[in-house]
Amino acid sequence: MAMLKYRDALRLAIKEEMERDPLVFCIGEGIGERGGSYKVTDQLYKQFGPGRVIDTPISEASFVGMAAGAAIVGNRPIVEILFVDFACLAMDQVINQAAKYHFMSGGQGFVPMVLRTQGGAGNSLAAQHSQSLEALFYHIPGLKLVMPSTPYDAKGLLKSSIRDSDPVVFIEHKLLYMTEGEVPEQEYLIPLGKADVKREGTDVTLVTYSHMTLKCLEAAERLAAEGVEAEVIDLRTLVPMDRDCILASVKKTGKLVIVHEACKRGGIGGDIAAMVVEEAFFDLDRPPVRIAGKNTPIPFSLNLEKLCVPSVDDIVEAVRSLG
Amino acid sequence: MNEANADLLRTMYQVALTIRRFEEAAIGQYRLWNIRGYFHPYIGEEAIAVGVISALQPDDYIVSTHRGHGHAIAKGHDTRLVMAELFGKATGYCKGRGGSMHVSNLGQFNLGANGIVGGGIPLATGAAMGMKQKGSRQVVVSFFSDGASNNGVFHECVNMAAIYRLPILYVIENNHYAVSTPVEQSTLLRDLSKRSESYGIPGLSLDGNDALRIYQAMAEPLRRARVGEGPTLIECKTYRHGGHHINDPGAYMPKEDLARWKAHDPIDVLRDYLAAAGVTEAAIQTIKARVEEEVAKAVEFASQSPQPSEVDFLQEIASL
Ligand SMILES: Cc1ncc(C[n+]2csc(CCOP(=O)(O)OP(=O)(O)O)c2C)c(N)n1
Ligand SMILES: [Mg+2]
Least CA distance to B114: which residue of chain A? Predict the structure, then answer.
């Protein structure tokens, strides 16, 4: 096992897949010689050249749609959009084209592309560079949605996403790029649709994903000191979602707290809560609780930004309130 | 040079120097962690904001970019309130909600900076449509750079402004880079104003470091806009004196190019005009002292201002 940063694990996944399959290529802004703003594609240009690591003008709507077009004719593009906020410019191509092509063509065509992007608050980057927009993609049938929290998961899931035959939206978190974790030397894949129980517990189920996984694990440690054993489920993949893993845990604990950074209204937490109430109402000892971001654009000022995103304290409090 | 011209030049020089010193002071504060987030300096490009905006009426609108401090200052914004916004303080123009990339002041007809490249172009075009509907003589200036001119909204908007004969000036601040991507790699055109031909409107390519020439060149586009003849596409060629943002050393910018552009510094160009107009060295020193004092006051004001109230914020968003 080697200790790797999240961004380096992502790069390794891309590099291995590009070496394995000549039809894999990268496209995005400043990803070539400069290696991308978060350095995920660093050095790939040197190894694979401008034909497979393609720098674009600031033309998101078009190069995302171009990736879909290339995917339909059999290539495997990995598109980088630096901030998920800018993915909004390409939403027609993602939602009306890529997501629907396989279905509309009666199953003739496939769109094996990955849209890698990055979101989340925490660096005082204000309202247009801090959003958590996963619910927009989650809502659209035809897309897969992956949001890993560790270097290990990032690498294994990105490789599976590249090999998948459907469009995959792969959202990284800006606060995770420099986090480190163990990554095996030998090749491995993590299947899409499998959650990971990051901590076992018997008293309460915390369902989360992406950066909030780290906060839930911290909250779980604090709760353990109070004698409460929380189970932390990192969904890793939001579509398809590992419902069985959630339901099995709720059966054991009887208490469900869902934690995400995206704002609460229309968030994925509401969908998970509804699913558990529909499927396992009588396993629940308490109503499900959602701990989520505030319904607001993210403010610039750091003291206000902090208020918008769930804290470890918020999670601990929510669990305590369940008694 | 007559006296009126000397006055204009003195003002332009003072504003350009204020932008330069403001940015330098703000960069210093950023290094002290008093300013956070993204910060895209306007250093090297001052002549464009100064030249274009000094040709406007006070109630003409501007729409700015992520590199927007210069536009705000040239529009006459209070440097204390701009600095306070950069600090994220309650006293800033946007009460600390916006920060560097989102400074706006509707009271002085600045619809705001933008964190989305090209995001301001439709807003500006829409504002021009609004002016036309109202029968107003106000004009809108849409500022953006070379990178934004490759985004689809540019094409759609300039075309619509042309067919609707909207009162708008599209000003491309061609600083030759979009982050690290040289303009030669994002378009095969060398003069971006040539794009005007595909919309059937006039285009101009100007020395973007010469505020006086830019000011003079604005007369015809503004006349056209005010009498309902429609938009003009204006390219001002310039160069950043550093990287894309504060934390980008700009290592990819060739040293010779940077040196050549720095030797043609927009502040020096104005200074030479002043000297040629017979303004004395002593008078120039007086302007410099005034600028230093203003910028120092802006920093002091921002430092001493309170953080935005958390209680007020939570109340404000309760209904969102
Ligand atoms: C739609 C969108 N894509 C990408 C970015 C990231 N980004 C911020 S500034 C910038 C470069 C902009 O270049 P240009 O338009 O030339 O403006 P300049 O920085 O030179 O003033 C990029 C790519 C963004 N903010 N918005
Ligand atoms: Mg530029």
Answer: A128
Cβ–Cβ gap B152/A62 under 8 Å: yes
Interface of B with A in 84-103 (CB under 8 A): 88-89, 94, 96-102
Give the residue, by CA position, lying nearest to ligand 1 atom 7: B117
Is any atom of ligand 1 closer than 6 Å to the C-beta of B192?
no
pLDDT tens track for B240-291? 999 999 999 999 999 999 999 999 999 999 999 999 999 999 999 999 999 9
> Are the beta carbons of A128 and B114 separated by less than 8 Å?
yes
Q: Tell whether ligand 1 has an atom less than 6 A from the beta carbon of residue A189.
A: no
Q: Above 60 in pLDDT, residue A310?
A: yes
What's the pTM value of the predicted model, to 2 decimals? Answer: 0.97
ipTM of the complex model? 0.95
User: CA-nearest residue of chain B to A308?
Assistant: B314
DSSP letter string, A29-94: TT-STT--TT-TTTTHHHHH-TTTEEE--S-HHHHHHHHHHHHHTT-EEEEEESSHHHHGGGHIII
Atom 17 of ligand 1: nearest residue by CA position: B145
Which CATH number is B3-318's, of 3.40.50.970, 2.60.40.60, 3.40.50.850, 3.90.770.10?
A: 3.40.50.970
Q: Among A218, A14, A219, which residue's Cα sits nearest to residue A116?
A: A14
Architecture of domain A2-183: 3-Layer(aba) Sandwich (3.40)
Q: Is B185 an interface residue toward A (CB < 8 Å)?
A: yes
**How far, CA to CA in Å, does A316 sit from each of A215, A220, A253?**
10, 8, 16
- The sign of the CA dihedral A129, B122, B175, A46 is positive
> A196-321 has which fold?
Rossmann fold (3.40.50)
- Delimit the domains of chain B by residue range: 3-318
CA distance B101 to B86: 9
Total residues found in chain B within this entry: 320
